[in-house]
Automatic annotation (TrEMBL):
Pfam families per UniProt: CzcB_C
Region ranges (Disordered): 26-58
Protein name: Efflux RND transporter periplasmic adaptor subunit
Domain CzcB-like C-terminal circularly permuted SH3-like: 322-382
Record carries keyword Transport: yes
Origin species: Candidatus Egerieousia excrementavium
One GO term describing the cellular component: membrane
One of the GO biological process terms: plasma membrane copper ion transport
Lineage: Bacteria, Pseudomonadati, Bacteroidota, Bacteroidia, Bacteroidales
Length: 397
């Protein structure tokens, strides 16, 4: 009986020890599983943190593929300090050079008619008849007809005197008088002869544009009266209005650039055979401006009489960083350029601007030289920055 109770107690002890060991192993497994899970979570959080850190380090970069950049006309160039001229921005006007203008005048008195429709700005060619003047319905009659009659009469008198002077029937004095009358009548007739059947034509003597039309259809004109001004536009004047406060800089002015209201092109008169003619020593009457006048070769794109935005160039400065005006973008009053880091990556960079000559602008700060800066198509890089700033770019520098 005692033996049976001992066996039952020993079995119970083994069962308790076995359960305890099982529970202990189960706890170990749970702890190990928890440790692996925690480690994985920490590893994942670390990767997220690394990506976020990397994204933060490249958030100001812009991706633009070479194909898209070429299609948008994006061009960059290495910035090197160079020469730059001081600039005085002023207003002014383009006018025709006096030597470049021809005045058409009436050769006879009479009523004037237009042979073809004509207005200011019409192009006319050398040798073209522009107007015709007729005295048909005037009291004195047609002047060309009177000149023809006077010429033929003087010619007959001269021929008769020439035949009689040999025989001393007409004196030498009378012969000379007849000869002079004939030559004067011939000059007067030839000046208006050979014109249209309806009157005396006014012939254009040069190629050019009608600058001023001084008569209207049917007006009465007298001999020598101006009827139109023809401008060749081969030589033009650029007249700048220099404010008085810049008078001390007037001797330093060497050349000029200008832009017209109807064209974005900036013209450099140095490239157009231009030169400085003179600058005034005092302001014009009732004007706060001093005139500065240049002469240059004209072309058909530049209209005489147009107003202009003028950049007067003064002394040359060396070692100046400058960029084309198209390289500059502006946001809320702050100016930026875009630096190309490599083939696909760009970075926005703030700059402070100095003087501008209409084509290039001086960079006071923000660039040191040597940077690869977008000089054409900067607006396309700016637009790209709004849509593809690289939040998780893994670009290596």
């Amino acid at each position: 009986m005692k033996s049976n109770r001992f066996i039952a107690g020993f079995a119970s002890l083994l069962l308790i020890v076995s359960c305890h060991n099982g529970n202990h192993r189960h706890g170990l497994h749970e702890e190990e599983g928890h440790n692996h899970e925690t480690e994985a979570e920490h590893t994942h959080e670390g990767e997220i943190h690394d990506h976020e850190h990397e994204a933060k380090g490249h958030s100001d970069e812009i991706i633009l593929t070479p194909e898209k950049a070429e299609a948008a006309g994006v061009v960059s160039e290495k910035i090197v300090p160079g020469e730059f001229y001081g600039v005085i921005p002023v207003g002014g006007k383009v006018t025709g050079a006096p030597s470049d203008q021809t005045m058409l005048v009436a050769g006879v008195s009479g009523t004037i008619s237009f042979l073809t429709p004509i207005a200011e700005g019409t192009y006319v060619s050398e040798g073209d008849p522009v107007f015709v003047i007729s005295g048909e319905h005037l009291q004195d009659g047609d002047q060309s007809e009177r000149a023809r009659i006077a010429y033929e009469t003087a010619k007959r008198d001269y021929q008769r005197a020439a035949a009689l002077v040999k025989d001393k029937i007409v004196s030498e004095k009378d012969f000379n008088a007849a000869k002079a009358g004939y030559e004067n009548a011939k000059l007067a007739y030839e000046a208006i002869a050979g014109n249209g059947k309806d009157g005396v034509e006014v012939i254009c003597k040069t190629n050019g544009y009608v600058k001023n039309l001084l008569v209207e259809e049917g007006d009465y004109v007298t001999v020598g009266q101006p009827v139109a001004t023809i401008a060749e536009n081969s030589r033009l004047y650029l007249k700048a209005d220099l404010p008085e406060r810049y008078f001390s800089l007037a001797p330093q002015i060497t050349s000029a650039k200008f832009r017209t209201p109807y064209d974005d092109t900036v013209y450099d008169i140095r490239e157009m055979g231009g030169r400085l003619l003179a600058y005034g020593k005092n302001p014009a009457d009732n004007s706060p401006y001093i005139p500065v006048t240049f002469e240059f070769n004209g072309n058909r794109e530049i209209i005489s009489g147009t107003f202009a935005e003028i950049y007067l160039l003064t002394q040359k400065r060396d070692n100046v960083i400058s960029l084309p005006t198209d390289a500059i973008t502006e946001e809320q009053g702050v100016n930026f350029v875009y630096i190309q880091i490599d083939e696909t990556c760009y970075k926005k960079n703030e700059v402070k601007l100095g003087e501008s000559d209409g084509q290039r602008v001086e960079i006071l700060s923000g660039l040191n030289g040597g940077e690869q800066v977008v000089t054409n198509g900067a607006i396309h890089v700016k637009l790209a920055s709004a849509g593809n700033a690289i939040p998780a770019h893994t670009h290596q520098h």
